[in-house]
Amino acid sequence: MAIHPVILSGGSGTRLWPLSRTTLPKQFIPLDDGRSLFQGAVARARRVAGVSVPPIVVANAEQRFLVAEQLREVGVAKSTILLEPAPRNTAPAVAAAAVHALASDPDAVLLVLASDHLIDGEAGFSAAVAVGLPHARDGAMVLFGIPPTRPDTGFGYIRRGASLPISPNPAAEAVPAGAGMSAAPTAYAVDRFLEKPERAIAEEYLKAGDTYWNSGMFLLSAAEYLAQLDRFVPEMVVAVRAAHAARTEDLDFVRLDAEAFARSPSDSIDYAVIERTDRAVVVAAPFAWSDVGNWHAFWEARPKDAQGNALSGDALVEDTSGCLVHATSRMVAVLGMRDVAIVETADAVFVAPRDRAQDVRRVVARLEAEGRSEKDFHTRVYRPWGWYEGVDAGERFQVKRIMVKPGESLSLQMHHHRAEHWIVVQGTARVSCADKTFLLAENESTYIPLGSTHRLENPGKVPLHLVEVQSGSYLGEDDIVRFEDKYRR
């Protein structure tokens, strides 16, 4: 009975705007240690005793190359990347992972993790999995409950029932007792699930000591999960099985059939199964946890100076306390502020009281209503071959920086409305233009006439950096005709 990690990697990129965007949700953003939350989740799962197979990642097609690249960066090969053709919430996503895992392992146990959680105390995490594993193997739906540290009104809660006996589990011996743990993990029957409460009720839960935040992480038998789902939402199981049966493989990706998957109802795993089954078990988690769901939570999870400020990047504070200052592209100076979140990126700055950080969604809604690109894109846009970054733009021109990874290439393409000038500043470029192919070294340049078929490649072993100047009557990214593309876009 191998444990199959399942990483749920959806996300709209709105709750930590402007750092996160639709095309770069928070789970993919590198933190101070250079590793993203997604990479942290993958690494954490790999260190759990009993995990011997690569993770199954469930993602949307738009983020597939981000997922693949970040897996490559942490040395994960041969993982399964299941692509959802449309968002249907977590219940169908886990069902698709269960069907896929069962195809190779009829006894598969799924360790279902969100890709955007922050956990401090990985020994405690491993110990909690070890305690829950015998119950999952016996068919229980195991949840990980977080002992609350404040009366939070944004989480669902779980009230525990009777404690359950500790089943023999050799994997538990691999975790040193008390190493990095706030308490020994214990499994309980679930008494009831509680909706997001008013503050007064949340304060009662905090005092009671028998109620936990629902972390959204699960450990469950793949076969039993599908059986329970078939009991409560049979049409979802039918749709997911059909979508998996008609799947196609595309490079490193497994694409679920769009027509079949669209027939699945949209529902969360909590509402579809966990809150309806009589087989739910909660393990009291002996580790610090955050879903990093807004800028206040981000501030809580960060190390702080003596005045309670969480500072990132080139931040200078004076007579300031309790603030989050996150600078990414320039120096940010703050004077005389209290309990404020200040987040700076190359194209946007967000400022709000920390206790209103969740209202960033109102800003994002305004951006969407006004059709502003800042909702979806950073100035740096990632592609499977590298990235490009806007530098300047005006009437009939724009300037970009472009980085192409070693061995990668852009599609063979042409533009109807613009010409391009390329200047290499680092590395070597192989350029195909019309019927010619040639190399450009550092400080060399070339001109791509309007309407010419062309391709840019990096044949070297170091990243290729160049400056591109576009000129023409229309400079939108949709002015592109692809003839060949190794990424099958």
How would you characterize the overall build of this protein?
The chain has 489 residues and is α/β, with parallel strands linked by helices. It has three domains: 3-290, Alpha-Beta Complex (Spore Coat Polysaccharide Biosynthesis Protein SpsA, Chain A); 295-366, no CATH class; 380-484, Jelly Rolls (Sandwich). The strands form seven sheets. A six-stranded antiparallel sheet has the order 20-21-22-29-24-27, with no helix packed on it. The protein has a five-stranded mixed barrel with strand order 6-9-7-8-12. The longest helix is centred in the first third of the chain and has 16 residues, at 122-137. The model is unreliable at 170-180 (pLDDT under 50).
Strand content: 25-35%
CATH superfamily heading of the largest domain: Spore Coat Polysaccharide Biosynthesis Protein SpsA, Chain A
CATH topology type of the largest domain: Spore Coat Polysaccharide Biosynthesis Protein SpsA, Chain A
Radius of gyration: 25 Å
Which tags fit this structure?
Spore Coat Polysaccharide Biosynthesis Protein SpsA, Chain A; alpha/beta; 6-stranded antiparallel β-sheet; Jelly Rolls; 489 residues; 5-stranded mixed beta barrel
Give the gist of this structure.
Helices cover 22% and strands 33% of the residues. The chain is built from eleven helices and 30 strands.
List the topology elements:
Layout: E1 3-8, H1 37-46, E2 56-60, H2 64-73, E3 80-84, H3 90-102, E4 109-114, E5 118-120, H4 122-137, E6 141-146, E7 157-163, E8 186-194, H5 199-208, E9 211-221, H6 222-232, H7 234-245, E10 248-250, E11 253-255, H8 258-262, H9 269-274, E12 280-284, E13 288-290, H10 295-301, E14 310-312, E15 315-318, E16 324-327, E17 332-335, E18 340-344, E19 349-353, H11 360-369, E20 380-383, E21 386-394, E22 397-404, E23 412-414, E24 418-426, E25 429-433, E26 436-440, E27 445-448, E28 454-457, E29 464-472, E30 481-484
